[in-house]
Design brief:
There is one protein chain. With 209 residues, this protein is mainly α. The protein contains eight helices and no strands.
């Protein structure tokens, strides 16, 4: 039986809209929620470096008499928690696919762990010989420098301009804080760095929607 023209004719515009709709749905399913990727880090920096600022403020002022171990310990725990949350969300989003992109993601995740572990091992050897207010600058400046570099590397690997620019912003903020000196570094990184991560998560989420 011959089909009528109405039954056999496909509207190219409608077909294109359907394809675009499905592509957008697939992209949302495979792309990790930017809020989970950036907000844990932003809160970590606001709280962790905020504690450094309160304990070792500018000109060696103690704004709040906290135990010496508390800022470093809190920042370390928060960094581990943020890394775990981001890793879990990223793994769930990419769990349904395989191939070179997944392999790159695993290797990049291992780079984060190796970088933090190696940096902590080196810095721990100087903890007993560097004054507390300088030690905070060493740990804070080193960790933020590593994070900024890894963000830029990730942006280059996945051709993600937003992530690369965020890494560049973090690097600039960190350099400005280090040049400003102990105390000021913690404040600058907490506000500009942590705030930048929170804003990046919000913008990424709005774009994903």
């Amino acid at each position: 039986m011959a089909s009528t023209d109405d039954e056999s004719t496909v509207d190219p515009a409608e077909a294109l809209r359907l394809i675009e709709h499905e592509r957008a749905n697939l992209e949302r399913e495979l792309t990790p929620d930017p809020r989970w990727m950036f907000w844990p880090w932003g809160l970590t920096w606001l709280i962790g470096f905020g504690l450094f600022f309160l304990r070792w403020g500018p000109d060696e002022r103690v704004l709040v008499d906290l135990p010496d171990w508390l800022p470093t310990g809190a920042l370390t725990v928060l960094l581990m928690a943020a890394g775990a949350l981001s890793g879990i969300k990223g793994a769930r989003s990419g769990g349904s696919i395989s191939g070179p992109a997944t392999d790159r993601g695993r290797m990049f995740g291992f780079s984060w762990s190796a970088g933090f572990g190696g940096l902590a091992l080196v810095f721990s050897q100087f903890s007993d010989v560097i004054p507390g207010f300088r030690l905070g600058l060493l740990w804070g400046g080193g960790l933020v420098a590593l994070i900024g570099t890894l963000f830029m590397a990730g942006g280059a690997v996945w051709n993600d301009r937003t992530t690369f620019l965020l890494g560049a912003w973090i690097s600039v903020v960190n350099a400005a804080g280090v040049l400003a000196g102990p105390g000021w570094h913690s404040l600058i990184v907490a506000v500009a760095g942590g705030g930048g991560l929170l804003v990046a998560g919000l913008i990424g989420w709005l774009r994903l929607r």
